[in-house]
């Protein structure tokens, strides 16, 4: 027996109020297949769908779902079906699902599929239970079949961010499509580079200091300069001798 979705409420009274328009604000462009599209327009719609669901960091040729694209182009599937295919694809599972805990993965999917931020931790918990009990495909299906998705996007509209983000320079205020695909906890588990910083001889230069020949000569002693320059001069002499011999 499937567990029912836990109840949760918006975090403020105006969460579900239709957004108001401010003169001069750019409103999101809606991409839809309700009307017949030219090949170029269909290419743009597919590109926007990838950017919304798969994140700018994942938009690589190797991650494209070409079979789904061909089905969408000929009308065998709807935009909603295409979005589902992207969200349950192997690349999405590997790059997003496998690199996050359930709570953050739920937040990412609500941002990209429903086009809004999660209401509260209780909403994360509610959808995390769905993810745990129904798996990734069942969780994605429930999001796409929800009343909220169908009212806002239906079968033919590519999901988009429904509320603008205040222009504050922080990770949380980036557009959803540009937020990192994994959190800090996963990043800290990644293997660190085995390369060690280059050690400068006798502290002639600090790690980030720009090399300057005059400064180098001023700080270095005579024997060190000779030891470093003699091999270079020898190579230059040999190269000149070879060039002269070939003439």
Automatic annotation (TrEMBL):
Keywords, sorted A to Z: Antenna complex, Membrane, Phycobilisome, Thylakoid, Transmembrane, Transmembrane helix
Extent of the signal sequence: none
Main localization category: membrane
Bilayer-crossing regions: 224-244
Gene Ontology biological process: photosynthesis
Cell compartments where the protein resides: Endomembrane system
Positions of the PBS-linker domain: 11-194
InterPro entries named among the record's database cross-references: PBS_linker_dom, PBS_linker_sf
Family membership noted in the UniProt record: Belongs to the phycobilisome linker protein family.
Protein name: Phycobilisome rod-core linker polypeptide CpcG
Organism encoding this protein: Tychonema bourrellyi FEM_GT703
């Amino acid at each position: 027996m499937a567990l029912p979705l836990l109840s949760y409420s918006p975090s403020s009274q105006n969460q579900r109020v239709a957004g108001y328009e401010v003169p001069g604000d750019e409103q999101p462009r809606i991409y839809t297949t309700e009307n017949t599209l030219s090949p170029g327009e269909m290419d743009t719609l597919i590109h926007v769908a990838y950017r919304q669901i798969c994140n700018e960091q994942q938009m690589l040729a190797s991650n494209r779902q070409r079979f789904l694209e061909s089905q969408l182009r000929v009308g065998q599937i709807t935009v909603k079906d295409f979005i589902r295919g992207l969200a349950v694809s192997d690349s999405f599972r590997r790059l997003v699902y496998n690199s996050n805990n359930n709570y953050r993965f739920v937040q990412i999917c609500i941002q990209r599929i429903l086009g809004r931020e999660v209401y509260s931790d209780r909403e994360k918990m509610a959808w995390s239970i769905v993810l745990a009990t129904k798996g990734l495909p069942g969780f994605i299906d429930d999001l796409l079949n929800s009343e909220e998705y169908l009212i806002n996007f239906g079968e033919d509209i590519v999901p988009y961010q429904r509320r603008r983000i205040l222009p504050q320079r922080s990770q949380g205020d980036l557009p959803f499509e540009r937020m990192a695909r994994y959190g800090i906890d996963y990043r800290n588990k990644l293997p660190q580079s085995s390369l060690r910083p280059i050690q400068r001889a006798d502290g002639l230069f600090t790690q980030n200091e720009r090399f300057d020949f005059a400064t180098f000569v001023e700080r270095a002693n005579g024997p060190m300069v000779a030891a470093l320059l003699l091999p270079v001069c020898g190579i230059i002499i040999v190269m000149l001798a070879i060039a002269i011999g070939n003439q």
